[in-house]
Amino acid sequence: MTSLMNHQDPPHDQIFETPFEDPSEMQSEPLRRVQVLLITCVDFRLRSEVSAYMESRGLIGHYDEITLPGASLGVMNEVYPHWQKAFLEQFRLLKKIHHFDHVLFMDHRDCGMYKLVLGEDHLISREVEYSCHLSQMIAIKEHLFQHMPDLTFEGVIMELDGTVTSLLL
Ligand SMILES: [Zn+2]
Prior knowledge:
CATH topology: Beta-carbonic Anhydrase, Chain A
Strand content: 15-25%
Number of domains: 1
Helix content: 25-40%
Shape: globular
Largest sheet: 5 strands, mixed
Radius of gyration: 17 Å
Strand order of the largest sheet: 2-1-3-4-5
CATH class: Alpha Beta
Bound molecules: zinc ion
Number of strands: 5
């Protein structure tokens, strides 16, 4: 691996255009430190609510965000299994350069990706919908994060009015 990341302040476009096999091998000085990696759904209806929630926790300016359809379901599903590789590459890169120690998965109600993968039946009741999101969070924690003891994991679900309920700590 060449010395791209040895620069104290490399140009933004160089960081993201340079290919690498394993970001953990990069020799880097921390460019910046954030507290949290937030994983959210792309849903256009909730962008300002997501920001408002993070502001309510005092985290504006202190988190990275990966956004993909379905949030937790986008990270691990059978329709688009290759998304997981892309997620993990981005995850490792951001961990390397920004050193977050808390991972926050934020799903939301009435999610189009959940409908696509699980079908409309998962919306038969709020309780069933909730349990589907909870099961997904548990699966991700167990399969992807069980060997990362330096990270804390949190899962929440947002209502369409922006209210947030804890799923998993
Ligand atoms: Zn969604």
